[in-house]
Structure formats: structure tokens, C-alpha cells
């Protein structure tokens, strides 16, 4: 077991449906601490770059449009095995396949509007955290 950090995003459907508190409660009650947070409206350029790995996918343009359709809450979560722990708490990308008790099973409206994003590996977590946060914006407690 090791303490890790991971990037979490509460997506526009989560923010606009007032799910911020509910989502953070899921993290905090399952041993993930919020060590940085920023409520922001992504630009098209930011969303395109952040999801650049999906550029060739048929859903890319819609995903960028969706992620810029309203504010998002970007966060750094910290805890034991934070990358995997966050993915377990979120559930599968497709809410129809997400396990019971997960955020996506309980709240996601579709595979696109699936409430949250979480880094898929420690390597990508470092890249994604750097994308949104300076080291001075991440705290320890
Ligand atoms: P996320 O974990 O943020 O990573 C990429 C996102 O693309 C994913 O969550 C979904 O919001 C979206 N996505 C993935 N697969 C599909 C799909 N088949 N159709 C539409 N959107 C998708």
C-alpha cells in the first residue's frame, strides 16, 4: 500500500445537478482526502488537450462539447492506492456496467454524462494533476 494522488473531475452534469457534496462525501468516507480543488469553466482548447488521447474516437467532439457545457470541479485526491480507490468508488465508465453503490451506477445519466472523471494510472495521474494544478495549489494535512 502506498499513498498516492489522483485527479478527479466532477463533470458538468454532476456540478449542475448539485452533486458536488454527494460526490465528495463518497470520497471522504472512503479514505480519499481532497488536497486541491478548483471550480472552473473549461475552454474548448483545454478540453481538447485534456482528452487528446481520445482524438480519433467517434465521441471526441461531443465529449469536448459536453465538458465545456458548464462548470467542472477539478480536484486532487490523496490516499492509499488513490488511483484504484477512486476508480472503484466511481464505477465503470458505462453506468449500465457500473457496480452497485458506485457514483456512476447511482447518478450517471449516460456513458458521456457520467458525473466524474478519474485518472486511470499513476503515470496519467501525475500528468493530469500537472495539467490543472501548480504544486503550490496542493496542500498537505
Ligand atoms: P472519462 O473517464 O472522463 O474518460 C473519457 C470519457 O469519454 C468518458 O469518461 C466518457 O465521459 C466519454 N466516453 C467514453 N466512451 C464513450 C462512448 N462510447 N460514447 C460517449 N462518450 C464516451
Give the secondary structure arrangement, pairings included.
Layout: E1 3-10, H1 12-16, H2 20-28, E2 33-40, H3 44-50, H4 60-67, E3 72-80, H5 82-90, H6 103-107, E4 116-118, H7 122-132
Antiparallel strand pairs: 1-3, 1-4, 2-3
Bound molecules: adenosine-3',5'-cyclic-monophosphate.
Keywords:
141 residues; alpha+beta; 4-stranded antiparallel β-sheet; 7 helices; 4 strands; 20% strand; binds adenosine-3',5'-cyclic-monophosphate
Describe the structure.
This protein has 141 residues and is an alpha+beta fold. The protein is 38% helix and 20% strand. The chain has helices at residues 12-16, 20-28, 44-50, 60-67, 82-90, 103-107, 122-132; strands at residues 3-10, 33-40, 72-80, 116-118. The protein has a four-stranded antiparallel beta sheet with strand order 2-3-1-4. It is globular and about 40 Å long. The protein starts with a strand and ends in a 9-residue tail after the last helix. The mean pLDDT is 98. Bound molecules: adenosine-3',5'-cyclic-monophosphate (CMP). Adenosine-3',5'-cyclic-monophosphate is lined by residues 54, 59, 63, 93, 111-112, 114, 117.
Shape: globular
Q: Which blocks of ≥5 consecutive residues have pLDDT under 50? A: none
Structural class: alpha+beta
Largest beta sheet: strand ordering: 2-3-1-4
- Strands, total number: 4
Report the biggest beta sheet as strand number plus sense, adding barrel if it closes. Answer: 4 strands, antiparallel
Distinct small molecules bound, one entry per kind: adenosine-3',5'-cyclic-monophosphate
- Percentage of residues assigned to helices: 25-40%
Instruction: Determine the N-to-C terminus distance.
Output: 19 Å
DSSP summary: helix tally: 7
Radius of gyration: 14 Å
Return the string of H and E elements.
Answer: EHHEHHEHHEH
**Strand-residue proportion:** 15-25%
Mean pLDDT: 98
